[in-house]
Structure formats: structure tokens, C-alpha cells
Amino acid sequence: MKKLLHLCAAGAVLLASLVTASAADAKLVVAMLPKSKGNAYFISCKAGADKAAKELGVQLLFDGPTDSNAAKQNEIVENWITLGVDVIAVAAENKEGISTALRKAQKQGIKVITYDADAMTDARSFFVNQATPEGIGQGLMDEAARLTGGEGEFAMIVASLTAANQREWQKHIEARLKEKYPKMKLVAVRPCDDLKDKAQSEATAMLSANPNLKLIMAICSPGVPGAAEAVKQAGKTGQVKVMGLGLPNENRRYVKDGVTDSIILWNTGDLGYLTIYAGVALAKDELKKGAKTFKAGSLGTFSIVGDNILLGKPFIFNKANIDLFDF
Amino acid sequence: MNTAKRDWQALLTRHEMLLLYVLIAEWLFFYFAGTTTNRRGVVVGFGTLDRQFDILRHSCEIGLLALALTPVIITAGIDLSVGSLLGLCAILFGQLWHDGGLPIPVAAGLTLALGALAGGLNAALITALRLPPLIVTLGTYSLFRGLAEAITHGSITYTDFPETFLFVGQERWLGLPTQAWIFFVVALAVWLLVHRTTFGRTFRTIGLAPEGARYAGLPVARRLALVYVLAGLIAAIAAIIYTARLGQAKADAGTGYELFAITAVVLGGISIFGGTGSVHGTLLGVAAIAVLKNGLACLPVVMGMNAAEEMSGLLTGALLLLALTASVLPKILSHVRSRPHAPAP
Fold first, then answer.
1. Does residue A67 fall inside a structural domain?
2. For chain A, how many structural domains are there in total?
3. Could you tell me if residue B20 is inside a domain?
4. What's the pLDDT at A23?
5. The CATH number of the domain where B241 resides is what?
6. Residues B294, B54: contact at Cβ < 8 Å?
7. Which residue in chain B has the smallest CA separation from A97?
8. B310: nearest CA in chain A?
9. Which residues in chain A land under pLDDT 70?
10. Is B35 helix (H, G, I), strand (E, B) or coil?
11. Amino acid B339: pLDDT
12. How far apart are the CA of A109 and the nearest CA of chain B, in angstroms?
């Protein structure tokens, strides 16, 4: 028995010394946390982040829950804290929940930045804002009104009823609706948990419950193709319009088939790129509180309002221009 | 009879010793492979005291569920509902405190009672209706989770718990993570129950031969009921610790934890067919999985390997299968050795 123990220990030490040889280069380590790892939206963010990390010569860790799981996000951040990374960049699933862990990270001298979905303001230095909620809400509502001719019933699919950015967008969509389009009526809002098949079944239920529905608006990226598939299978192509926030690649087929009319989004690769540049600048003390502008590599200069670094205006993808983009 | 019994015990000891070697080997590997000095000259990774405390902190909930399952599986039962019950109890606790306006200790006490009650539901269905535990707890597995989701509409998250409560999950007391003390107390209590009381020893009898135990005059139904109520109670304790660690209670709390706990129990040498096993085996099983999972999470920074989550699932599975093979190997070998005397076909 003792022999076996010695053998095990010796084996472990040997293996370990083999791998430590390749370790320990003193690069700046930036850890990036998406809401969910497999979501194409965040994968395209990562592509931009990878590019920035390469240009800056930093090590990028990209890890997140496989589903949108707030508890798991906390565990990953706690892991990074004890690993002593230099920067943590977070897209928060649950604003209050994640902030406990982020404050702990800040106490240990780790720089915290948020992107896509903000945490509590005292739990991070800056928020890389992909577009103001107001800009997104108005952009979505205006496009919906344009597609329906400004009247009739429409329904919404959201990621979850709790995610802070979703609630914020919804608020601005409803405000715009009330203010400018009195003949349109929002008849249902359903969560899809960031899953395409859930979005599809929710959309199918919406179609049968609301025979007068003229448009479905999805404000989470798996929601748009999910809704499009439901409309297509129900044989209501053209009769019920589909639009929302999403990625060109996920929706290309439906846009070309004429099921989905418009996709509204910012450039997600740029979002990842800008986030990493800002995070690294924070760690190097080049980006400080009160700055008014920030220059991020090849993308140029961005304006900062308060502690929000603004990426820019949303963009509308449709049948005419979708083939110019690949992400 | 006596020698057979001694052989059996020897095998059991051997399995636990084997697991201990695996644990030590894992620990040494990660100590050397998972530790490094970062850019700011600070030692980070597996070889830090903080990390060891983190391992302990993160294993408390799954460890508690494994302890809850130990007596259950020894009686040849199973409880698939403990993870869902953790979620339900977390929600109930959050609701009692936040919406009910109760002080934390009262809310916690009520949550424990509700956990035991939910365990009682399992117990009643299993003992009174004589339904198989697998089917009953498969039902309550969905029922408890469904209730938690229905109560919160899948969207409410209880947060903003007071600092004094978060102390239980996030701070240290007398040098160790606070919740570790609770875990140790529960572990000791379950160990005493299973190994040091006549009462607990009957669990093994029931697991080996329930009919025999019944004919021998043991109150089998009552003993079984107790085991499931205890499991519910411990799941509720785990729920409170979980809430304190994350500072939030949400309906998805503890999703999939029951499978980690069952893995730890089986890895610890408890036969899924009942009758054998020990609480210290379970604890070793929990530690082996926790060290593996946490150690792997250190490797990205040290080795630039970025797939800790995926690897930990794969390696946990491999570890379990290896341990099971290793533990039945002596039996098979002795069986093969005794065969050459049989006439060739």
C-alpha cells in the first residue's frame, strides 16, 4: 500500500514539473465573462476581444455559464479572484447578484469593467455601453412602426424578465409606443431564457392566442430566429412580420426568405474589442475616472458619458445589406 | 461467516484507502501544476491558503447533499429530489424573509421545518404506498423545482440579505469558512448516526435485506421514513448556506447538484444496491471531486488551458469509473483465480 502511495505522489510531481515549465509568463491577464458561453452573440464579442488581446499582448480568459445562470457567474468570478487575474470584464446576468463578487474583486485590486449588461455602479469602474437603452428602444419601436404602418397588435419576446438591460430596453420601447404610436398595441411579453426553441414555442403560442397579431419583436438574439421559425411553420410568412435584436448570421436564412424583415444591432465584435482595450487601459492606469474620450486601437476614439463608454448608434440589417456582414 | 465478514471489511477499507491516495495525488498534482506567481509578484492559484478555503467553501452544499444521500443509499434507496429541494428551500427562505418580513433566524428555522416536511412527503409516498424511491423522488424532483419556479414565476431573485447573514456564506469564523463549521457538525452527526448507533446500523440491514429486517421485527417503514426526512432537513440546511454564499435566492439554485452528490457517494464506496458504505467514504468522495474541479479551474491561468468546465465533467466521470473498476477488481481476480480448477468445456 505504501509503495502505491509513493508511486502516486511521484507520478503527480513528475507530471506537474513537466507542465510548470511551460507556465508562468508574466502577461497581463484579462478575464471576460459572457452571460452564456455558447450564445453566438457572445462568441462574436469574443472574436473582437481576441483580436484586441493579440494586439495588446495580453492573455485573455473567456469563460461563462453554458446557460444564463447567475449563480454560476458568481462562481466563475470567485475563481478568477483567487487566480489573481488583472482585469475582469463582465456581462451581468443578475445586476445585484454579481455585484457582491465584483466588489470583492475590486477589494483585491482587480480592475472591473462591465459590457453588454451593467452591474451596480459601485461594483465596476466603467460600463462599455453598446448603445444607450433609449437609442435601442426607440430604434426598435420606430422600425416596428415602419413595418406595420404604425397600427395593429404586436408582441415581444425577451431573454428573461429579470435581466437589467432587457427591462431597460422594454421600458424605452413602451415609452416610445405611448408617445408616438397610439394605434399600435403591445399584447404580450414572454421570456425565452435565451433559448431558440423556447422562443419558438412561445411565439407559436402567441400566434394562436392572438389571431390579429401583425408583428413579433424579439429583443434577445436567439429570440428572432426562434420567432421566425414559428411564423414560417404556422404559414404566416409576410402576414406576421418578425424583427428584433439579433445577429446577421443567425437570421440570414429568414431574412432572405422574407420571414424576418429587419435585424437591429451594433457591431458585437467592436464591443468585445473596445471592452478589452478599456480593461487593459484601466489596469495600466491609462484610463481614469472623469475621462471624456477613449482611444481603442484601430477603432478610433469613443466618447465617455459619466462612467459609460459609448460604442455608438444601433444599425439596421435587412435583405439589402445583410450579405455585407459575417458575424 | 466471521472470515467472510472480515474480508468484506478489508475490501471496504481498501476502497477508502485507494480514494485517499487518489485525493493526495490530485492535490499534489494541482499544488505543483496549478500554482504560479502573477505579474504583480503574488503567488496565485491552487497552492494558496485562500484557494484551499475556497475548495472547502464550494464543497459545503454538495457535501451536505452527499451526507443526506448517504443513509438513503445505504438503505438501498435513492433521493433524486435533494437538488430541487435545495432550490425550493432557497426560494421559501427568501420569501419568508423578504416578503414575510421575518427575522433571518426565524425564516431559517421555518425553512428547515419545510425541508423536513418535503422529505416527509417523499417518506410517506415511499413507505405508506410502497412505491420505489427512484420513481417517487423523480416525481418530487420535478415537483419541488416546478414549485420554486411557479412561486417566483421563474424571474424573482431575492437579494440584499443583511451582512450578518452573508457572514455565514462569505466570511471566516475561527479561521475556517463559516459554513464549513456547519458542514462538519452535520457530518459528525450523520457519522455518529450511521456508525455508532444501533439505530443507524439497522440502515445496512434494511439495505441488504428489507424483508429479512421486517421478519426480524425491525420497524422498517419508520426507519426508512426517518432517512428521507433527514435528507429533506439537510437539503434545507444546504439551501440556506447556498443563499448566504451567493447572496441571492433564485429558483434555479442547486440545479444538477443531486447528480454531483450521488457521484460523490458512489465514489466514496457506497453500493448503489444498499447495505454497505461509510460516511467517511462519502466525505472522501466529495473531497476528491471538489479538488479535481477546483484544481482544473486553476489551470487556465497557469497553463493557458481554457476548458476547465468541460474537462472537470470528463475527468469526474473517468475518476468514478476508475474507482468503481478498482474496487471490484480484487473480487473479479479472486474469482478468476479460483476457476482454473473447473473442467474445461
1. yes
2. 2
3. no
4. 41
5. 1.10.3470
6. yes
7. B248
8. A66
9. 1-26
10. strand
11. 66
12. 11
The answer to whether position B336 is within a domain reads no
The set of cell numbers assigned to A108 is 483585491
Helix (H) or strand (E) holding A305: strand A300-305
Q: What is the phi/psi pair of residue A313, to 5°?
A: -80, 150
Which has the closest alpha carbon to A259: A272, A244, A269? A244
B144, three cell numbers: 419541488
Residue A117 and residue A39: Cα distance in Å, rounded?
Answer: 15
pLDDT at A87: 96
Which residues form the domain of A72?
Answer: 25-130+268-312
Q: Which residues of chain B fall short of a pLDDT of 70?
A: 1-14, 300-310, 339-345
Alpha carbon of A236: minimum distance to chain B alpha carbons (Å): 30
Distance between CA atoms of residues B159 and B152, nearest Å:
13
B329 to chain A, any CB pair closer than 8 A? The answer is no
Q: Which of residues 291-320 of B touch A (CB under 8 A)?
A: 294, 297-298, 300-304, 306, 308-309
Please state the pTM of the whole predicted model.
0.76
CA–CA separation, A125 and A230 (whole Å): 42
What is the total count of domains within chain B? 1
Q: Positive or negative CA dihedral for A263, A269, A271, A272? A: positive
State pLDDT tens for residues A61-107. Answer: 998 888 777 778 888 998 899 888 999 999 998 887 898 899 999 99
Residue B2 lies in a domain: no
> Which residues of chain B form beta strands (DSSP E)?
35-37, 43-45, 172-173, 176-177
The answer to whether the Cβ–Cβ distance between A97 and B246 falls below 8 Å is: yes
Angstrom distance (rounded) from CA B224 to CA B131: 12
Specify the CATH number for the domain of residue A107.
Answer: 3.40.50.2300
Does A111 reside within a domain?
yes
Its ipTM equals: 0.71
User: Where in the sequence is the domain holding B256, given as residue range(s)?
Assistant: 47-327
Q: Using only the alpha carbons of chain B, give its radius of gyration.
A: 22
B23 grid coordinates: 485525493
Amino acid in position A44 = S
Say yes or no: A72 and A140 in one domain: no
Residue B135 within any structural domain of the chain: yes
Question: Do both A49 and A172 map to the same domain?
Answer: no
Contact between A161 and B51 using a beta-carbon 8 Å cutoff: no
Q: Which of A248, A265, A282 is the last residue of a domain?
A: A265
Residues A141 and A260 reside in one and the same domain: yes
Q: How many CB atoms lie within 10 A of CB B92?
A: 23
Judging contacts by C-beta atoms under 8 Å, the chain A residues touching residue B159 are 94, 96-97
